[in-house]
């Protein structure tokens, strides 16, 4: 906006703005000769109507956009660092490549919004509505996403390292190849989500709902999945070494060739689970429910199976060298003899094993 307008020009301009029957900022800015891309950093635009506005690469750094109407607005490449967007309406808006680092979007309506490749690091997205939003390849490291609704959202290849996603709704969401290292997802709803190939090392998924989710080839090394519902989940070839799965529900889970070495599965429900060819070396399966589980050709060397229920479990071809058994339901005298011959250790069975191994 020029600084050399006469008092008469300014009076005429103000009168024109007052008489204009619109509260659309884009139109008012055009009348006032303002540049949306340059003149609104740190401006107070709370509750302003910017519906369908063309705001490509606009500068809204530190601006107050609380409660603003930005439905279907084009904010591609816009700078919104540190902006206050609490309760703002951004449904179907495009923020591809936008920079929202440190912005506050708590409770904002972001349904079907495009955030492809956007910088959302350290943002506050708690309680935001992000159903069907596209966050693919976006940077959400350190973001606060607690209690947000991301049902059906696309987060493929998104960076979520250290993000707080407690109790978030990610049911049927796409998280393929996403980085969730050390992310907090306690109590999160991930039912039916596609998490194939995601990196969840040391992530906290305690009490999370993951039934029917797919995590093929996902890395969950040292992750916390205690008390999580993983019933019917697909974890083929996934890595869960040293993971905490205490009292987790893995009923009917697909764990073929899954790496569960040194995992803590005490009290877990693995009934009807397919663990064929799985690596359970040094895993703790104490008091686990393995009724009708398929453990054929599984690696169980050094595993603890004390008090585990092995009724109708399939142990054909499993490596049980130095695996510890005690007080197991479903282990017949004949099966016990076979397992001892294959190197298993049964509590108070030293003499039994020596008899089995003694030459005739």
Q: From the alpha-carbon coordinates, what is the Rg to the nearest angstrom?
A: 29 Å
- Percent of residues in helices comes to 10-25%
SSE succession: HHEHEH
Oligomeric state of the chains present here: single chain
Q: What is the count of DSSP helices, taking H or I runs of 4+ residues?
A: 4
Taken as a percent bin, the fraction of beta residues is under 5%
**General form:** rod-shaped
Count all strands and give the number: 2
Strand order of the largest sheet: 1-2
Main structural class: little secondary structure
Low-confidence stretches: 351-360
Distance between the termini: 103 Å
Overall mean pLDDT stands at 92
* Most strands sheet: 2 strands, parallel
Question: Your description of this structure?
Answer:
The chain is largely without helices or strands. The protein has four helices and two strands; from the N terminus they run ααβαβα. It has helices at residues 7-19, 25-32, 333-341, 350-357; strands at residues 324-325, 345-346. Strands 1-2 form a two-stranded parallel sheet. Helix 3 (333-341) links the parallel strand 1 and strand 2 (345-346). The longest helix is centred in the N-terminal third of the chain and has 13 residues, at 7-19. The radius of gyration is 29 Å and the shape is rod-shaped. The model is unreliable at 351-360 (pLDDT under 50).
